[in-house]
Specification:
The chain starts with 7 loop residues before the first helix and ends in a 10-residue tail after the last helix. Helix content is 43%, strand content 13%. The chain is globular and about 60 Å long. By secondary structure, it is of the alpha/beta class. A hairpin with a 5-residue loop joins strand 5 and strand 6.
């Protein structure tokens, strides 16, 4: 029996995932899972070998978000220890995924609470950039009501406004422009950065502006911690592949028609913050220094499955 490979509905969903500009890593995982489930639902025979169609689907998902480690590791969750490639086997893994993911989230929350407890009794001023589902969830569930937040708006899409609107329900919140980070950094105790990917040298990919923020923090003796799950460790980087950060539509930065040949406009959503600017990573593995995290993550993340995608 021959099954159709990726159909038009799946291609539309993959295209929408590619065009999504505002969702965080956790939200993008949910979209990727919905695409996988839709593909599985289109297959009637649960005992049919669906190796080709699922590998093609996973290749397409990897192309859509090539630098986003959580999607890579979500695919790895499905592939790394499957005994057979049938719909039945994939559905077993799919149905077990929420419990696996919830355990990681709970471990991260426990680590974050342990980190925050070190500042107990202190009125803590924290600077954030852009929007991180992980950081917001940790803050909401840790209830550090004495904290004050300074949030960079994160151009060009201004996701920081969304963060400020959410946190201002519980905390004193200041929304500031990206370029004013230096003015406000002296009022800050710590900087928390979200994570889209962790590279093999401990550097992180996050919203553009994270790197200069970390530099400004270091220049003012402020500590910087990255917050994210261990599955944000990037296997492409682990195996020495180049991580490409794509240039996005220029109209988001400059809406006029460009008439001069020497005039160039650039629009990047992400940058790389070198590990030397990070005091540690708060993850499901604990509150760890960069070397500690790198030593532990390769023990818990399945690495071998990704070799066939290199």
């Amino acid at each position: 029996m021959v099954i159709n490979l990726i159909n038009k509905q799946i291609h539309r969903m993959i295209r929408d995932l590619h065009l999504d500009k505002t969702s965080g890593a956790s939200e993008l995982i949910e979209i990727a899972l919905e695409i996988i489930k839709t593909q599985l639902n289109s297959i009637k025979d649960e005992h049919l070998d669906i190796t080709d169609v699922m590998l093609e689907l996973f290749q397409e998902l990897l192309k859509v978000r090539p630098s986003m480690a959580p999607i890579i590791n979500t695919l790895g969750y499905f592939l790394h220890d499957l005994e057979s490639y049938t719909k039945k086997e994939f559905l077993i893994k799919y149905n077990a995924f929420p419990q696996w993911r919830e355990r990681i989230k709970n471990d991260l929350l426990s680590s974050f609470r342990s980190f925050i407890d070190k500042y107990k009794g202190k009125s803590l001023n924290i600077m954030l950039i852009s929007y991180s589902t992980t950081i917001i969830k940790c803050l909401k569930e840790s209830k550090t009501n004495d904290s004050t937040f300074y949030i960079l708006e994160a151009r060009p899409l201004l996701e920081g406004r969304r963060t400020a609107e959410i946190l201002s329900s519980d905390y004193e919140t200041h929304l500031i422009t990206d370029s004013s980070m230096g003015k406000f950094i002296k009022s800050v105790d710590i900087v928390l950065l979200g994570i889209d990917s962790i590279l093999r040298d401990g550097s992180i990919i996050n919203k553009i502006g994270s790197h200069p923020l970390a530099c400004v923090a270091a220049d003012n003796d402020k500590k910087v911690f990255a917050v994210g799950d261990s599955y944000k460790y990037n296997l492409k980087s682990h195996y020495g592949q180049e991580i490409i950060i794509e240039d996005k539509p220029i109209y988001e930065v400059y809406s006029k028609k460009i008439k001069k040949q020497l005039f160039h406009v650039h629009n990047y959503y992400f940058d790389i913050t070198p590990s030397r600017y990070l005091n540690g990573i708060i993850s499901d593995l604990g509150v760890l220094t960069i070397p500690e995290f790198l030593g532990q993550v390769v023990e818990v993340i399945p690495l071998e499955w990704f070799k066939s995608f290199l």
